[in-house]
Amino acid sequence: MNISNFINGSHSSPSSSPSFSSINPQTNEFIASIPLSSSQEIDLAVQAAHAAFPRWSATSRAQRSAYLTAIADAIHARHEEFAVWESRDQGKTLARARVEVDRAIANFRYFATFILHETSTARFTPDERVLTYEHRSARGVFALISPWNMPLYLLTWKIAPCLAFGCTGVAKPSELTSITAYLLSEIFVQVRLPPGVMNIVYGDGSTGADLVRHGFIQGISFTGGTQTGIRIRQDTAADIQKHLSLELGGKNATIVFDDADLDAAVDVAAKAAFENQGEICLCGSRIYIHQSIYHQFVSKFVEHVSRTYIPGDTLGAVISLAHYNKIRSYLTLAKQEDFLLGGVPPENPTNGYWISPCILKNNDNQSPLCQEEIFGPVVTVSPFDTEEEAVSLANDSKYGLAAILLTKDGARMRRVGERLQAGLVWVNCWLVRELGTPFGGMKASGVGREGGSILKMCFVWFVFCIALCSMRCIVCEANIYLLNRDI
Ligand code: NAP
């Protein structure tokens, strides 16, 4: 496949830029040629989005909703094609890829209807002739930058609200996973999205850096690693008007209390550790287990994981050789006797980047295995004695993206859940997402919130999960207008 940039409504000639090769991590075979976009091409894409903004932001909500629905329908019609390419490009299982295509479609459908039903607030003032209300106006051109672990799902989670709220954009997927973004650009042509409204450019980190620094970019919605987030903040520090939403790395804790339903807890903790071969920012990669059930839990957990997560069947390959080597280097830090499952994978794999699930005993919370984001099929298990100790171990991390709490005790759900330093706390479940719930991390896991309603601060209870979060809309700016008229 030859991937080409999508700028101002058309695909540029594949030969216009230097290119690099994309490989299938499951087989190490070449699958696509990706352009390395020049700064001139980035400029063309941003200029196109800038020129398209006045007309697009003036379209009615109903018109934008119709475009989003048409995009969702068109992806749905090519669902399997998207899923197969996502699996080949990223290394994930086909089953996992299908779920993510479903969720990409849901991103467009959600924002297509959200904008039709949005409300605003009006407040009374002491002066009875004056009411205040909130009006959100579209802000301009956004840079939408996504990582390689859930390529289509995360890119569409940015593109859909950007379009829905009347903004235009330039999207850049990770250099490692460009193919489904290219298929999406074909869909933009098919539904006749007006030229320039959404542009997609390909390339490496320097392409992303050119994009965020461009003077016409009004805001950046970025998902990726914490170090890249810091770099983006540095690169845009002088552009004070640029709105930044940074969704960054995580090293999330799973806490298993002694009153948890053991079989259900094993299942949730295993999914949280090994889904998408551990390449999800929200994965629970350090499990803390109450001392009284530690041995029972661990033995069931090891048995369940070894039976359920089989490389090549229910577990995909990791994204690249560089990432394989990174995960491998962490595994070499563990002592042989600490491996309850798995082991150090071989050096220089030739037939894809496969790593079997690894479960490691760990009693040192300061170990890099407990502190650093490995982003692979690796989980540590450690015991705790008291609730206080569990909270302190979980919070002893520079990250604060998510946490998983496994307990039947309703009072403990709140008592512990509210003290965990995490943007999102799942209770007795994991990865349950409702797109209206604000999403984002604390500490080194990011700034800003994506999704959500118009509430500024919220504490939301679900039947199955608790979300502790504050909200910031990524693509709109809230302006307060004062109405001063005789009533
Ligand atoms: P990454 O290296 O930070 O890259 C993310 C994106 O940023 C890629 O498109 C990348 O392009 C681009 N980029 C690189 N340098 C840039 C720069 N200086 N300016 C602008 N853009 C730049 O992250 P990754 O390795 O792809 O993804 C893994 C990380 O993402 C993990 O840390 C994971 O936790 C995090 N993540 C977070 C969330 C969340 O919601 N919080 C969700 C998923 C993943 P190239 O790839 O072409 O270099």
Summed up, what is this model?
The chain is α/β, with parallel strands linked by helices. It contains 14 helices and 24 strands. It has two domains: 6-121 and 139-248, 3-Layer(aba) Sandwich (Aldehyde Dehydrogenase, Chain A, domain 1); 252-427, Aldehyde Dehydrogenase, Chain A, domain 2 (3-Layer(aba) Sandwich), CATH 3.40.309.10.
Name of the CATH first level of the largest domain: Alpha Beta
Number of strands: 24
Tell me the domain tally.
2
Largest sheet, spatial ordering of strands = 14-15-16-13-12-18-19
The description of the largest β-sheet is: 7 strands, mixed
Radius of gyration: 23 Å
- Specify the CATH architecture of the largest domain: 3-Layer(aba) Sandwich
Spans of 5+ residues with little confidence (pLDDT < 50)? 454-487
CATH superfamily annotation of the largest domain: Aldehyde Dehydrogenase, Chain A, domain 1
Distance N to C terminus: 64 Å
What is the tally of helical segments? 14
Structural class label: alpha/beta
Q: What ligand species are in this complex?
A: NADP nicotinamide-adenine-dinucleotide phosphate
The average pLDDT score comes to 91
- Helical residue percent band: 25-40%
Overall outline:
globular
Write down the CATH topology of the largest domain: Aldehyde Dehydrogenase, Chain A, domain 1
- The amount of beta strand, in percent, is 15-25%
Protein name: Aldehyde dehydrogenase domain-containing protein
Region (Disordered): 1-22
Family: Belongs to the aldehyde dehydrogenase family.
Active site: 247
